[in-house]
Design brief:
Blueprint: E1 7-8, E2 25-26, E3 29-33, H1 36-46, H2 52-77, E4 81-87, E5 90-96, H3 103-127, H4 135-138, H5 142-157, H6 166-178, H7 183-205, H8 211-238, H9 246-258, H10 262-275, H11 279-291, H12 295-308, H13 312-321, H14 332-341
Parallel strand pairs: 3-4
Antiparallel strand pairs: 1-5, 2-3, 4-5
Helix pairs in contact: 1-2, 2-3, 2-5, 3-5, 3-6, 6-7, 7-8, 8-9, 9-10, 9-11, 10-11, 11-12, 12-14
């Protein structure tokens, strides 16, 4: 996944190729707004009496967009392509890390959302003549109360170190430095434990203000664990021969490549491609060819991945993350291919 660094906002918790330059763009970032997003905002507004409901709904909408733009802008500053998606209880910025993208940069992208959100809320309150540190000022009206809670409080809550919040992404990056390749899995399991303890404490003490939120977090964590197991089981069954499922087959071919057998990985990827052509297996084929020193074949497969891509950002991220392709990155054909995937 692209930057599965898919930075996830508080509310979440991440055919043929179409023209990537068409559609809604916010500050130059491709942005998808699904019907669920305005529906969610409308429902939020109905939960509170007028006019507080309108202020809360409007503030959530604005700060959600500001939050995701924060992620996207910092990612762009580091030379990455990024896009934004908004849906029901879901908002996230996805980016394609450049080759060699450091963990420090990942952490900065992760924290940028809350940073922009809280900063924007403080500026808004000061512009309204409200002292953000004064309880009397903040509670003096519906507008400052809505801005303070949805901008500052929820922005800081999103930095709680559990998956799938931004705080979890930051800690996950740190864990990955200590346990390469295992950071996200370790963070997910630690998050289940921490969230369960917090929920139990809330129930035992009767503090239920954030009970629905942490219950939702635990559900998302459980669902992620379940999906992880399903994928692992599917890849295990697919190791013998390609299934025609691009996601499963690319994972199985990648496993062969990681086990030091590029010849077998290439044969597996080619077999999968013949069953169901996809950019995912084409990327693995390119990596295998590069490992075998077959430069022209590696370039051919990389170009094939770009042409067959249904999601240019995902393919861009897969190619950027492939260490086997480092020797090709200055090749004119490779540079042109990467440029064709830019959003």
């Amino acid at each position: 996944m692209p930057g599965s660094d898919t930075s996830i906002h508080l509310w979440l918790v991440t055919g043929s190729r179409t023209d990537r330059r068409s559609g809604l763009r916010l500050l130059g970032f491709p942005t998808t707004v699904r019907p669920g997003f305005p529906l969610f905002i409308a429902l939020i507004g109905l939960l509170y009496p007028w006019p507080l409901g309108a202020w809360v709904a409007g503030s959530i909408a604005v700060f959600t967009i500001v939050h995701e733009l924060g992620h996207a802008l910092v990612a762009r500053w580091f030379g990455c392509d990024a896009r934004i998606s908004l849906d029901f209880m879901v908002a996230y910025a996805t980016f394609s890390p450049t080759p060699g993208f450091s963990r420090t940069k990942r952490a900065l992208v992760a924290v940028a959302g809350a940073g922009f959100q809280v900063t924007a809320a403080v500026i808004a309150l000061l512009a309204m003549g409200v002292n953000p540190l004064s309880r009397a000022d903040v509670t003096a009206g519906d507008a400052p109360a809505a801005v303070w809670w949805t901008g500052i409080v929820l922005g800081l809550v999103n930095l709680i170190p559990i998956t799938p919040l931004d705080g979890g992404a930051i800690v996950s990056s740190a864990l990955d430095a200590l346990f390469p390749g295992r950071g996200p899995k370790l963070m997910l399991r630690a998050s289940v434990v921490v969230t369960s303890i917090v929920l139990a404490a809330m129930i035992a003490t009767g503090h239920s203000d954030f009970l629905p939120f942490f219950a939702f977090m635990l559900y998302l964590q459980w669902r992620t664990l379940r999906n992880e197991q399903i994928i692992n089981d599917a890849v295990g069954r697919a190791l013998a021969s390609p299934t025609g499922d691009p996601f499963v087959d690319s994972a199985a071919a990648t496993l062969r490549l990681r086990n030091g057998d590029p010849t077998s990985a290439l044969a597996y990827a080619v077999g999968s491609w013949l069953i169901c052509p996809s950019s995912d297996v084409a990327v693995v084929a390119s990596r295998a060819c590069a490992s075998l020193g077959r430069t022209e074949d590696a370039l051919d497969w990389a170009e094939t991945a770009a042409r067959s891509s249904l999601d240019s950002l995902v393919t861009h991220a897969e190619l950027n993350a492939a260490e086997e392709l480092d020797s090709l990155r200055s090749h004119p054909r490779y540079v042109a291919m990467i440029d064709s995937l830019s959003i």
